[in-house]
Amino acid sequence: MNDKSQFLKGTLEGCILKIINDKEIYGYEIAETLKSYGLSGVSEGTIYPLLLRLEKAEYLNSTKKESPYGPKRKYYRLSLKGKEELKNFYENWIELKDSIDKIFIDYKGDFEYE
Amino acid sequence: MNEVDKMRKENLKISRKLNYENLKKYNDIVCYITVNSINLNRKEKEEIISDILDMFLRCEEEGKPIEEVIGNDHKVFCDSIIQSVVPKENKAWCYFNRIITTIGDAITIYFTIMYIPTVIKNRDFVRCSVNKSNIITIMIFEFICCALVNYFKKNLSKLSKRKSSKKEKILLGSGYGLVALLIAMMAYKLPNCILFSVSAYYVIFIVGIYWLYKLVIKVYERR
Predict the structure, then answer these.
(1) Torsions phi, psi of B198, nearest 5?
(2) Min CA distance, A40 vs chain B (Å)?
(3) Phi first, then psi: what are they for B194, rounded to 5°?
(4) FRET label pair with B130: which of A24, A32, B150, B190, CA 20 to 30 Å apart?
(5) With left for phi above 0 and alpha for psi between -120 and 50, is residue A109 left, alpha or beta?
(6) Does residue B163 have a pLDDT over 80?
(7) Helix (H, G, I), strand (E, B) or coil at B105
(8) Confidence at residue A3, expressed as pLDDT on a 0 to 100 scale
(9) How does residue B160 score in pLDDT terms, banded at 50, 70 and 90?
(10) So what's the pLDDT on residue B204?
(11) Cβ contacts (< 8 Å) between B53 and chain A: which residues?
């Protein structure tokens, strides 16, 4: 229940879409951006399958660009379909967040052992 | 040289920059993805391999272990990649393909290991006669082949890492011996009554059509 990764499961794709919406970016930079927002447990290896899935679903377009020391690197940007998906995600997220906030409105975070 | 071959050559060349330990892990991953993602075309596979190589090189550059990025079990990492890109198969098509493959393979096995020796022996295209022991032998043969292929597909990287022990070799040898004995017993014990017989030309035609079907499917998947 306290496992952060379980909370993240359904929302990580939305976060990735938002980051890619801001600028053209590649996998490692996405992982670093997520870390800078406090999602330190998310590595490039975790987000790579999600990027492939999003690309397959046509939410992302990609371009190969030269990299300083390795093979050509894949840079992602949001497609029109991806922008729509991001909008849907955000609306759903706000709705869910409001509902959860309402449930917890009177919760003070204290507990007593019986 | 086409684009995919170029990409493969480049990946191979760049992968030589990796240190020994990472190169071994990288090769295991490449092997696992190549064998287990049969529904992906060559370009898609090479692109994935190229992205993974980039991860390895970056880790090496930053002096951190690759496990920090892909986790401790590279099989889990590879499976998550494969699951995210392999299209969901139509179930009806999947079953149909499996049935055709099982029957086609069975006829091919019969033709190559049972019928051709008869033709060589008789120096004539005699009618293909199938009896009970033929069917059971083919079924055992197919079952063993399927089990072996599935086992190697899932454990290729593990198997390349270690040598098999004496106990395992004895077990494997006894297994083979047991199967051979079983097949021999079937052939001996079962009444050698012919279930049906068909003209050899029909069998050659069916085997030909089956392998043409396999070829078309392979070409379609590679596109």
Answers:
(1) -135, 165
(2) 12
(3) -80, 125
(4) B150
(5) left
(6) no
(7) helix
(8) 66
(9) low
(10) 85
(11) 70-71
ipTM of the complex: 0.84
B200-221 tens-digit pLDDT: 888 888 888 889 988 887 777 6
Distance, CA of B132 to CA of B195 (rounded, Å): 7
Shortest CB distance from A43 goes to which of B11, B54, B68?
B68
The nearest alpha carbon in chain A to B40 belongs to A56
Which ranges of chain B would DSSP assign to H, the alpha helix? 3-15, 20-36, 42-62, 67-70, 74-85, 91-109, 116-122, 132-161, 166-189, 200-222
Whether the pLDDT of residue B6 is over 60: the answer is yes
Residue A112 has pLDDT above 90, yes or no: no
Contact call for B68 and A28, based on CB within 8 A: no
Name every residue whose Cβ is closer than 8 Å to that of residue B192 and which is 6 or more positions away in sequence: B131, B133
- What average pLDDT does this structure show over A2-19? 83
Secondary structure of residue A41 in the 3-state scheme: coil
Supply A100's token pair: 């959860």
Residues B84, A52: C-beta atoms closer than 8 Å: yes
Give the position of tokens 């098509």. B93
Which of A48, A53, A66, A73 to probe by mutation at the B interface, max B CB count within 10 Å?
A: A48
Q: Is A11 in contact with A93 (CB distance < 8 Å)?
A: yes
* Segment holding A73, helix H or strand E: strand A73-78
Close Cβ partners of A15 (under 8 Å, ≥ 6 residues apart): A34, A39
CB contact under 8 A, B48 and A52: yes
